[in-house]
Amino acid sequence: MRRSLPVVLVSAMIVLRVGTVSGKECHGVNVPEQTQVQASTLMLNGLGLRQATMLKVNVYVAALYVAQKSTDANAILTANTPKKLVLHFVRDVDGADLTKAWDEGLGRRL
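Given the sequence above, the corresponding structure tokens read:
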């Protein structure tokens, strides 16, 4: 299951990139075009809003940073370079609720 989480997150970020505002802002959340991880400068590859339930409740804006931009999830996952996923919550979410939702979501994809 641990291997599946990166696949789901990276795949989701690539999909989100297509349907979201290009650049630094998504639903009122501003993110930088670049970030630092150790000595590496990473570029924003994708940015998108996660909505939950049939009511489409806004939960968080996710930003994926990579060393080299790509639309290929496998290339991102197999690259031997730093990656960073930033989640900015736009709604109060309890840690236990978040864990439960991720476990249930990943369970459906396995």
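Residues 4-96 form a domain with the Chalcone isomerase fold (CATH 3.50.70.10). Try to locate this feature in the token string yourself.
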